[in-house]
Design brief:
Residues 1-16 have a biased composition (Basic and acidic residues). This protein has 21 helices and 17 strands. The chain is α/β, with parallel strands linked by helices.
């Protein structure tokens, strides 16, 4: 009978394994929130938290803080604690883009507010060898060369550790006490750029950076970033870039240089060991970020550096930035005695700029598309690629077409009908990923007539929040709050508006915007405001973000940034609308006004924008000297 009872029970069980008479009821919230049972410690969760992690990864900054936490949480804390010192060790064979990654990391981390410096072992090696070295220098059987390579690696690592500890010679020379204190408060990131292709070399770097005796009281995190590339076409392109730009091949015949670098890579491959120690923190990049593998990466590495590494790509695409169109000109504003309001709409000058901007973007973006057609056998599907570019703007089934079919007469008419608007019907003349602030004047600048382009409106792109001083002009603030105003004059980047922001806060909210721009594969247009664009321009120029408040950004002007092969950006500027001096872009300059000279060579390449200072009502070529005031323009207009 017992056997029969068991059979009956089995027969009565439903598909979930419960007996039909005792099945618990399932709340609808289970499917949206999951189990409501409180999470408790278990042997499994403790084992995961204590997962084998070496102490060298991220030691705690304060020994007495260890007592605050049970032992089982310390390993995870060592991974998440923010250190004042971080070493990023690049790993990879020649031609894998390590120096490209190093330069991008340096610019990004410096822009974010860290002190960052690249230590390229190749530079030390050329100094030790008194010049360039051919492939035989990298043969593991060449004992003399091996000693010289180790000496160069040791010198670079030694200099990096001294720099991380702020002990390099002349570290404080010519720097004020206030500036020196500010520098010491910043975390420092050293990037060790070399092949570091063997386990022994990487273990040596770890020991040198985390030695408990020689590095006592100097906790240093170490993260490896390995660049792996097995795409033959990409490797060939990388090798050619190295042949054309590396100091090792200056004056050498290109065929001879290519043969040498191929031999050098082959010699390294013989001894190459990929990272496989899962007790270490590492990131593996495949074919320059087409795939990324991370291991023991937490904290700022996870929230900042990993997204940036995933975003960077070697494709060329233009990035355009400009200010929102003008609302009312100076004469009208003075007549009405009104300061600028956040809710203002475009005025006549602003609508003229909006229309001219559309024509300029059409010309630029179509030129981009046509050049891509000429160098490849397909039109890139700009609605996919990174997953964010121009979402929904390309008709399905049109992602890949041969050049022959595109050039045929029957398809000529279709070329202008590839991209469609957010209504899914209206054809758009060119592809572009558009980002703007939520301010009406910015949104209206890209509301092109009968062209329903999708616009990504982001509060991240809104102007600097001036807190209690919102709506006030700098001249009024200087009179009513002279103490605060003096701080602004002395340190315009870090002085925070009461109840608002400082320029230093903007890098935090613009970080995701920079990553989004970097990951695009097609043209990008950003329409925002002076304070925001000053910070963005500092990123693209690779200039100190602390000095961004002095960057001039004229109205009715489009800045274009195009990637260079080395990881930087080339800049050009275009004045798309020329206005009379009375309607020029005026800024508070005490007795003077700032005006971009319409007679400047529009569209010419230059590193520093050309401008003159003019008094209101005078010709732009009448120069004056402004009285002392902070180099901060914001959206202020003197009334």
């Amino acid at each position: 009978m017992a056997h029969s009872k068991e059979n009956n029970d089995d027969d009565n069980r439903n598909d979930d394994g419960y007996l039909g008479t005792v099945r618990p009821s399932v709340s609808s919230e289970y499917y949206t929130r999951g189990s409501a049972e409180l999470a408790t410690e278990s042997a499994l969760t403790l084992a995961k938290i204590q997962h084998s992690v070496n102490v060298h990864m991220s030691p705690l900054n304060h020994a007495n803080s260890i007592a605050l936490y049970p032992p089982h949480t310390l390993q995870r804390l060592r991974l998440t604690e923010k250190n004042e010192r971080l070493v990023i060790v690049l790993v990879g064979l020649p031609g894998r883009g390590k120096s490209f990654i190093a330069r991008k990391l340096q610019n990004f981390l410096t822009w974010r507010g860290s002190e960052c410096k690249v230590f390229n072992v190749g530079k030390y090696r050329r100094t030790a060898a008194a010049g360039a070295c051919d492939a035989n220098f990298f043969d593991s059987k060449n004992a003399a060369a091996a000693r010289m390579r180790q000496e160069a690696a040791s010198a670079a690592l030694r200099d990096m550790l001294r720099w991380l500890d702020n002990e390099e010679e002349g570290a404080s020379g010519g720097v004020s006490a206030a500036s020196a204190n500010a520098l010491r408060k910043k975390d420092r990131v050293g990037i060790y750029d070399a092949t570091n292709s063997t386990k022994d070399r990487r273990d040596w770097i770890l020991r040198e950076c985390t030695d408990k005796t020689f590095r006592a009281g100097k906790p240093t995190g170490v993260v490896f970033v390995e660049s792996i590339c097995d795409d033959k076409d990409l490797l060939q392109e990388n090798y050619m870039t190295k042949v054309n730009g590396s100091p090792d091949y200056i004056g050498m015949d290109k065929e001879e240089a290519m043969a040498d670098i191929l031999k050098r890579a082959s010699l390294y491959e013989e001894a190459y060991e990929t990272i496989d120690d899962d007790s270490q923190s590492y990131i593996k990049m495949y074919n320059l970020s087409s795939k990324i593998l991370v291991n023991h990466i937490y904290g700022r590495m996870a929230k900042s550096i990993v997204p940036a590494l995933m975003a960077w790509n070697i494709g060329t695409r233009p990035v355009f930035i400009c200010r929102a169109g003008q609302t009312m000109d100076v004469v009208e504003r003075e007549t009405r005695r009104r300061s600028m309001a956040r809710s203002e709409s475009l005025g006549p000058n602003g609508t003229a700029f909006r229309d001219a901007l559309f024509e300029h973007m059409r010309e630029e973006c179509l030129d981009f598309v046509n050049r891509r057609k000429m160098v490849g056998s397909f039109i890139p599907n700009l609605s996919t690629g990174t997953g964010t570019s121009i979402n929904g703007m390309r008709k399905s089934g049109m992602s890949c077409m041969s050049l022959a079919s595109l050039s045929s007469p029957q398809n000529q008419a279709q070329e202008d009908d590839i991209y469609v608007g957010i209504d899914g019907v209206t054809p758009l003349p060119f592809p572009c990923h558009i980002m703007s602030s939520t301010m009406p004047r910015a949104r209206q600048t890209v509301e092109w007539k009968d062209m329903p382009y999708p616009v990504q409106m982001l509060s991240n792109l809104n102007p600097l929040d001036k807190g209690d001083f919102t709506g006030q002009e700098l001249e009024d603030i200087a009179i009513e709050h002279p103490g605060w105003y003096q701080q602004l004059v002395e340190d315009p980047f870090h002085t925070r508006f009461p109840g608002g922001e400082c320029y230093g806060d903007l890098t935090s909210r613009l970080e995701s915007v920079v990553v989004d721009i970097e990951q695009q594969v097609g043209p990008v247009l950003v329409v925002s405001h002076v304070s925001i664009l000053q910070v963005l321009v500092a990123y693209f120029r690779g200039t100190p973000v602390e000095s961004c408040t002095s960057i001039a950004l004229p109205l009715n002007t489009v800045l274009k940034f195009t990637p260079s092969k080395g990881g930087g950006w080339q800049e050009s500027q275009f004045r798309v609308v020329s206005l009379s001096p009375s309607n020029c872009d005026l800024k508070s300059m005490d007795n003077g006004m700032y005006c971009h000279n319409p007679s400047d060579n529009d569209g010419m390449l230059y590193g520093t924008p050309k401008q003159v200072l003019c008094k209101e009502g005078t010709s732009p070529d009448v120069l004056i000297s402004p009285l002392p005031n902070p180099p901060i323009w914001g959206d202020h207009v003197r009334v």
